[in-house]
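Key idea: predict the complex, not the pieces.
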Amino acid sequence: GAVVSQHPSWVICKSGTSVKIECRSLDFQATTMFWYRQFPKQSLMLMATSNEGSKATYEQGVEKDKFLINHASLTLSTLTVTSAHPEDSSFYICSASEGVNTEAFFGQGTRLTVV
Amino acid sequence: GNSVTQMEGPVTLSEEAFLTINCTYTATGYPSLFWYVQYPGEGLQLLLKATKADDKGSNKGFEATYRKETTSFHLEKGSVQVSDSAVYFCALSDSNSGYALNFGKGTSLLVTP
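Result:
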């Protein structure tokens, strides 16, 4: 299947700093990318949907000013956690698909720890 | 709104045992249904899917049938292997969700020799 690369796989940052997570589709053009958050022993919760060249659509309860999503090209989307706090520590996962209702391929995830 | 409920884990089985992981869903439209697997230290991988009622998805000996009448998509395998130890997620997507995936909480499976 297609490959989605997510970087970094883990990051530790100080409270108050910002962290950028990249999600790249390596061998296909990702019209749509999704960002999820996974708490320990819980399910993946959709944070936002981004379509290339458009503003991201955020799920209810997700702060768009805190979780900045950019999808400027068909192969790259970024999630920036601004002014991170310990409660933002989590596992963030992206997925990418070529189009509507096509298979979504997942990145390996990023473990963010804010200290 | 859409939701997915799957059985709580962890599930511990001996090698060659029969596996069933239950999954039921609630959806307002006509969703596609998926099972994803997450092996230790790896990302999510699509295991199988079904896009309409009565479809059966299958892969690597795993099967699941889309049952609209019972709103279920139970995962089964006749004989599990140690290498099947992983976390399994049931999920759905439809046009109402912009085709984003709505996941169940995941079921951890441990297969012992």
